[in-house]
Design goal:
Layout (H helix, E strand, L loop, with lengths): L5 E7 L7 H12 L4 E6 L19 H12 L2 E6 L8 H8 L11 E8 L3 H13 L9 E5 L14 H16 L3
Parallel strand pairs: 1-2, 1-3, 3-4, 4-5
Amino acid sequence: MPSTKIKILAITGSTRNNSSNFKILQYISNHLKVKFEVEMFENIASLPHFNPDSDTENPPQEIILFRSKIEQSDGVLICTPEYVFSLPGSLKNALEWCVSTTIFSDKKTGLITASASGEMGHKQLLLIMKTLGAKFDNKTQLLIQGVRGKVGVEGEIIDEKTKEALQNFTKNFENHFL
């Protein structure tokens, strides 16, 4: 009987079409071993604004679906830019919808911030995901600064140090499950 593939939900914090963050998630997805099945979540911009009044009693259908995708995955990959020294509002909004749940508790997670600087946004991402109970460590999180000069138009990684860092990250993320 064939073994079941490890399901990974990949979330980009960028709403830009064909962003560097999306390309990085595709790169990782293409380099994960055959034991993994990666689903890209590309609807982050369509999630309604967080509203605590409808968080637990009657969440919007889009939120039920989003939470379900996280819950049904074996792990989550997040790759995000930094906007104004912070997380993009769309990603922060999506994560706020998860605070009242336990869907990230001990969920194996890989976290990447890929931006011009990214330092402040990365710190915030790590803090939020730690607060949500996600399971990650120094080997399954990565900051890529100056990303626009490191990812080509077709999604190829054109900077050797970045390529090596992503290969190490991917290997470490895989080892989370094996």
